[in-house]
């Protein structure tokens, strides 16, 4: 008969000897990947973008007038002769006036004329349009003279400031817009207790006057219609010049 004997292990004596080896194996097998966080010691600056507006109102001292002659007839030759005769008379009148400036011809046209009933050609009509400038208060009297001389139509009257006044106002508007933008930047940074470093970019978004709107006088002159434009008052008013300036300002954030 055989007997199996189990040997007893005294763990109380053996464990202290095995513990260093077990700890070493555990550290090697279970150690996580290491990561290092470097503190960001650099202190980068930031920018603020502001936009300023400048406005300057200047008087409208000039009137741009477009007027002309329109004639019609059975043949193109007769129409052209009559157009040239009347147009020359109107141009001569304008040239004799010292208060008329920038006189120029803007268009000359010759077109067939058709019967609205059956669509057949019944002749021709021609136009000659000139443009010039004059003081607004002198428009009425000059147009009366032009009608008597041979003008048959007014294509438009636009009241504007002089070129010199517009150029000077553009500079003033840009100056005002720049100061407005700078004032906004100073106020914002001061309120947030931030330190301004420098202006890194400047953008001028135009300094142009609005497009003038012509007075509604087109085709008011009829060949045989009696008119007295000299008695019609013309109030020129003012023209506004605007400019916008955008600044990008670098500032230093507050360090905590």
Automatic annotation (TrEMBL):
Signal peptide residues on this chain, from the entry's feature table: 1-35
Gene3D superfamilies: Protein of unknown function (DUF541), domain 1, Protein of unknown function (DUF541), domain 2
Keywords: Signal
Short name of one Pfam family: SIMPL
Key word Transmembrane present: no
Source domain of life: Bacteria
Protein name: SIMPL domain-containing protein
Protein's UniProt keywords contain Membrane: no
InterPro entries on file: 26kDa_periplasmic_antigen, SIMPL/DUF541
